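Figure S4 source data
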Amino acid sequence: MRREERYRTWAAGIVLGAAVFLLAACSALPTMGAATDAPFYTVRDSLGREVVLDKKPQRIVLLTASFVNMMHAVGGDFVAWANSPSDEGALYAQGKKTVGYTYQVDMEALLAEKPDLVIGLPGLHNRLQQALEENRIPFLLLSLSRFADVKRAVTILADVSGRKEAGQAVIAEMERDMEETAAKVPQTAYRFAVIHGTAQSVTIECKGSIACDTAERLGLKNAFGDLQPPEGGSQLPFSMEQLVEKDPDILFLTTMVMPGKEQAAFKDNLMGHPSWRALKAVREGRVYFLPQKYFLISPGVEYPKALQFMAQQLYPEQGLKGEG
C-alpha cells in the first residue's frame, strides 16, 4: 500500500505541475480582444493634440507639397494633396487628385476623397479642424519651420505608412548633408535679420522661421532673437527704427508674392525708406533674397538644400553645392 500511495502522490504532483504550467502560458498570451482593441498608432501633433489611428490609414490627404515630398521619400502613398499656383508638384504627385490650394483648401473636394487621415500645417489649416472632427476624420497639424520639426514629421509620416526604417534612413541622410554644409563655412559671427514682405506690409521674423533656423545653423546670430513673437507666430511688426538700432551685418528677404515681383514687396515699406542705404548690410552688399521653394512654407526633405543655398550666397568662394 505504501508503494501505491507514493505512486498516487507522485502522479498528482505531475498533473498539478502541468496545470500550473499551462495556466501560466495561457496568461502570457494576449487575448484576441486586446489585440483587436489596440490602436494602430497614437501621436501628439505640433499643437499638443493627441491623435489616435485605430488602423493603418489607406486614404491619406496631404495639404502641402512639403508633406508630399516627405511621403515620397519614405516610400509611402497618398490619395490627394493641396498644391499652390506656382508649384504643380513633382512627377510622383502627377495623377493624384488635388483638393484646392495649400492656402485655400476646398473642403468639399477634401471630404469627397473620404480620407482616413489628413495632414496639414498649424496656423494655416487650423480652421479645418471642426469640419474634420464632425466627419470623424483624424487630422494631424505638423509644424515644418525648423529642421527638428521636419525630422519629426518625416518620422510620423513613415510610421503611419508602415515605413519606419525608411524614415530613419531619410533623416540620417538629411543630417549628414546638413553637417557637411555647416562644416564647410567659416565660423564668422555675423548678425542677421530676416524681413518678410507682402504686397501690403513687411514684418520681422524673430525666431522659429525656416530662414532663422537655417541661418543659425550656419553660426549666424539673430539680431532680433531676444524678442518674443506673438503666441503661435514667428513674426513681429516691422520698425525701421529698430532695424537701424540693431544694424545687422546681413539682411535676408523672404516673400510670398509671385516670382519676379519680389522687389515690389519691399520697395515702399523698406527700400524706399531714407534710412535704407545707411544700413550696414546694404552698404556692404549683404542683402539676399531667399527663394520661396525653400523658405516660404517648408522645403521638407530638401531642407539641406535650403542650408546649401544660404551658405552659397554668403560664401560663394567656398564652392558649396546648391542652386545659385
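Figure S5 source data
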Amino acid sequence: MGNRRPPDRDVAPVVQRVRIRYARRGRLRFSSHRDFQRALERAIRRAGLPIAFSAGFSPHPKISYANSAPTGAASEAEYAEIGLTAARDPEAVRAALDSALPPGLDVVDAVEAHTSDFAQRLEASRWRIELVDVELPVAKAARDAFWAADHIEVQRMAKSGLRTFDAREPVAHLQVDPDSQAPCVILNVVVRHVTVTVRPDDVLAALRRVADLEPPVPPRVTRLAQGPLDEATCIVGDPFAPDRRG
C-alpha cells in the first residue's frame, strides 16, 4: 500500500487572529464544550466570516480554545481565538457571531491578537458558588476549617482512572457572603490554574471532607472571570489587556 499524500490545495494564510470572550448562560450552561465548538463553527459560516482552514486530508477551521468550564457550570469568561484570511474589525466580528449564536451563548468581547502568550495569562479563575438552604454560620465554619487545613486530598474520576490530588493549595481566596435576594449563601472562590485543574466541585468536595458541608440542593456555579492573578489582592485581571494596548 503506497503512502497517502494529502491533496494539493490552495490554503489562504491567516492574516488576522481575533480573540473572543463568550458567556454560557441559563440552560445552555449544560451544553458541552463540543456543543459550543459545533455552534461556533455554524455561527462563523452564517456570519460569512473569512475563516482560515488547515491543510491536509480533513481541513478544519483554525479555532483554538482555552480552559473551558465544566459542563453544568455557567460562565462569563470563556475564550476562543479564530484565524481569519482577511482583516475584520473585532467589534464587527463580535456582533456578527453574537447574532448568529443562540441566546445563552453570548459573545461579549473581542480583540485583535497582538501577543503570543495568551494561554499563559489565564492564571486563575474566579467562581461564584450558590449554596441554597445552607445557613451562613455553617458555611463560615466550613470556610474556617478549609483555611485551617494545610492539605485536603480529594478524588475525581478521570479518563485514566481515579485521581487523588490536593484541592487546598491552588485556592487563593475563599469568602462566604449572604445573598440578600435568595435563601442561600455565596462562596466567592479564586482558584489558581495548576497541572491538575481544581474545579468548583473539587472545592465543595474539600469542604465536605473537612466540615461535612453537604448542600441539600445542587449548587449553582458561575465562572465570573479568568485571567492573570494579582497574588496580593486575589483579583483576577483582564487577559485581553495586552492586546488592547496593541
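Residues 33-47 form the longest helix (15 residues). The chain has two domains: 16-113, 122-236.
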